[in-house]
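To: structure desk
From: M.T.
Subject: fold request, one chain
Message: Could you run this one when you get a chance? Sequence is below, nothing fancy, just the single chain.
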Amino acid sequence: MSVAWFVVFILLWTGFLAGIASLITNGRVSARFAQMVWRGAAVLSVLPLAVIPLLRMLPKDLPSAVPDLPYVEPAAGAVASASVGLQEAVSGPDWAWTGPALIALLMAGWAFRLGASVLGQVRLQHLKSRSVPHLDAFDALPLSQLKLERAPQIRLIDGGSPFVAGLTRRAIYVPQGLETPSDLRQIVIHECVHLNRGDLITRPMERLVADLFWFSPFAWLMRRELDFWREAVCDEIASNLSGDRIGYARTLAYAARLSAPVRQLPVAAFILPKKRSLPKRLSRILEPGPTRSRPVLALGASILALALTPFALAEAGKDVVSIDDEAADRTATFESAVMKSENARITSHFGKRIDPFKKTPAFHNGTDIGAPEGTPVYTPGCGAVVFSGYKPNYGETIEIAYRDGSKMRFAQLEDRFVEVGEEISTGTKIGTVGMSGRATGPHLHLEHWKTGLNEETGETELLPQDPVMADGLTLFMGGSR
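Reply: Done. Structure tokens follow.
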């Protein structure tokens, strides 16, 4: 997977998941259900990063198609087309700087996010060190319902928003001005609900999606929604436990007026930025109308999201080379001409050329052999069909894997006569010449891919080769080569 495609894919993927989650949670839904939906979106957003390494654990002798194989048809067509266009845009020598530049930019962003987290911890420790214990009594807490033996220690801070912190010695930090018994009871119940629900552990994990994908606005949307629904769930539980919804809402509004949130603290704050969340939170507390869940819609969206994860596999699969040690010692034997026609001729060679459509320099991964429509195309050697179908820009395409791990792509066909999984012998008629993709005239677009060392990444992967230089390969008979 190229760096450029990684960025584009994450933008598309997180955008899709955020859109689905927004659709499901729109309206008067249960806070717990909404939190579950957004948590699912966050988990699915990082799923491709977990799946890609698993590809390397697959058996290496499995046949696979050459790069750009769309695993999901026809829905993958648009994504595959975008992938091909992106690869063409950044693969040429003139754009070789884009990969290192994007890597540097990503690393800088991750370093900044790490620095922001460290700064948040420093601010938190500084705030805690300046706090003083609160010794006055306040109304009793429903400890049994909160599943606590005793309430955490309460400490006063100069300003900011109430929060709970501490792994071994947990304490609730409350800004001065909110230490009246009624307000203090509402705040402590809210923070104890955070403790009971384990938010001190889950919150950093939920917010990680925006740290990983800092360049995606949709990842930040997920983070914001997760923060809101976490507090909404606690509001729902705490206002019921307090027995005074109006008093709870009054404390929430008063805290928002009294203190601005302390930025970049790695804890769950009682008050989120009021312009975005306060009115909605107060509305849910004061007007508890009927809520509804949408399990069917949520299940359908989850299945659709999981079905689209092969897009990541398709791109990640470019780096997975299906060749074993024995295959490395074998060579493919080519004993038949690819085409037999007096009218065949090479119309475009492998390598850098002027793109006939964009009129700009571009790298051509194959060789174009012009011939009349309907001219038969043959496989030059024995192999297995690993792809037979339509590809954006390539048109009707057949891909064949040979005994040494190399592969050939036959594109721009008019007809296909073989299917995936077929073992075919030398000289088998596999299709006919056409112009079914992006083409200026009828021709066969032939690509030859072999395993080699990528000088930029240092990894072994399938690399495009000049078909004219393939040992023993005859492109056509009856014309000049």
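Reply (cont.): Residues 98-129 form the longest helix (32 residues). Let me know if you need anything else for the meeting.
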